[in-house]
Amino acid sequence: MSHAPTGEGVSLVQQAVQAVRDHIRDNDLKVGDTLPGEGHFAGKLGVSRAVMREAFGALAALRHIEVANGRRARVGAIDGSVMAASLDHAVATAQVSINEVWDVRRTLEVRTAELAALHRTDEEAARIMALAEALAEAGDDMDKVTAADVALHEAIAEASRNPLFLDIVRSFATLMRVAVPAAWRTRTTDVQRHTVIARHRALARAIADGDSESARALMNDHFDRAVEGRLPQGPAQ
User: What global pTM score does this model have?
Assistant: First the structure.
């Protein structure tokens, strides 16, 4: 059993947050399982309900628990939103550049493409193919282009069978909504745009065909040609 230190510098709320985390871990709770109420923890820890309310709120903000009016708190599922907020803050405050984020994204997504080709279901393969076609059919509608591009990369990550990959790729969505239109605007001719669309189709086909080597190479090529050197150096606006 692991518990937070209770010495100087650790607030009552921090201790309460750790107590809830310890309860989840020690009782082997899973996503959707219910937690005791604030009163239970308040009595056990000897703190006020206000402290526990704040602790529950902090855990809910981190998506560790779900809190709804009239219902007991439940163990939450990861969804990428907390990581996305951290990335957005890091870029906005110039702690990291968009290119640095995309370098990490490249490393991850080359691997997700490889794994997706190995593990995708028939339904997932069909969805990935359909999203590549949706990108082709979006034309100059940047909202549709961006939505299809974001959904395609998330579908590939989901097909990898590693939920952490999906969570991390989802965390890139906010930045992709800035970078995808910016990259698309650099493709000024029909030939350039058709080439990009053809690459997405080829990637989707490789995954559908279970060709992990080609999927890996095509995703790597996607970042070489479509992303690298075309992103703004400063914070996203």
Answer: 0.78
